[in-house]
């Protein structure tokens, strides 16, 4: 968790210096992205909200994405990660949206992705999507890696 907070401190410094805000949607990271950002004192200056979108019901209720709205999308994919990041940015009216979706383990998901598969996206003044494969079935280890990589992806965009 210390590594996550260290990355979050760098993200926080950038967001505060720019007077920018963020909202987070995460799935298999289980809230670790949001928890890391909130662990930094002064988080209320930049963190507007977050959602753990772990199930279809959560997607419908928290993201207002219906089953019909999922046509052409598959969970745990780059297009879905981008949709989540963009949706968070729009719903909160913030500068940045950050998302993560995947399969933490110990087994893969119902879409055929192996444990350790995660897609993450940043939506904002600069956007990027990426896929990560850890090739590990360590659930909590994967959750930590997913959160760290999502924060690093955001930091890369903030520093660009």
3D architecture notes:
It is a single chain. The protein is an alpha/beta fold. The mean pLDDT is 97. It is globular. The two termini are 26 Å apart. It contains five helices and five strands. A five-stranded mixed β-sheet has the order 2-1-3-4-5, with helices on both faces. Helix 1 packs across helix 2 (32-38).
Tags for this model:
160 residues; 5 helices; single chain; alpha/beta; 5 strands
Mean pLDDT across all amino acids? 97
- Order of SSEs, N→C? HEHEHHEEEH
Give start-end ranges of low-pLDDT stretches: none
Radius of gyration: 14 Å
Q: Give the helix level as a range of percent.
A: 40-55%
Give the number of helices.
Answer: 5
Overall body shape: globular
Number of strands: 5
Main sheet properties: 5 strands, mixed
Distance between the termini: 26 Å
Summarize the structure.
The protein is of the alpha/beta class and 160 residues long. The chain has helices at 2-18, 32-38, 56-63, 78-92, 139-159, and strands spanning 22-26, 47-52, 96-103, 117-123, 128-133. Helix 1 runs parallel beside helix 5 (139-159).
Write the layout of secondary structure elements.
Blueprint: H1 2-18, E1 22-26, H2 32-38, E2 47-52, H3 56-63, H4 78-92, E3 96-103, E4 117-123, E5 128-133, H5 139-159
Parallel strand pairs: 1-2, 1-3
Antiparallel strand pairs: 3-4, 4-5
């Amino acid at each position: 968790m210390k590594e996550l907070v260290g990355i979050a401190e760098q993200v926080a410094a950038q967001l505060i210096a720019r007077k920018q805000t963020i909202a987070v949607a995460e799935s298999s990271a289980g809230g670790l992205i949001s928890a890391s950002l909130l662990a930094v004192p002064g988080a209320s200056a930049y963190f507007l909200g977050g959602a753990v979108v772990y199930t279809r019901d959560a997607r419908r209720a928290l993201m207002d994405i219906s089953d019909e709205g999922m046509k052409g999308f598959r969970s745990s994919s780059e297009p879905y990660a981008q949709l989540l990041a963009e949706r968070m940015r729009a719903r909160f009216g913030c500068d940045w949206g950050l998302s993560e979706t995947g399969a933490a383990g110990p087994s893969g998901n119902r879409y055929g992705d192996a444990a350790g598969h995660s897609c993450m996206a940043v939506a904002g003044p600069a956007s990027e999507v990426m896929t990560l494969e850890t090739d590990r079935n360590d659930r909590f280890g994967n959750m930590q890696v997913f959160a760290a990589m999502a924060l690093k992806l955001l930091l890369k965009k903030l520093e660009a």
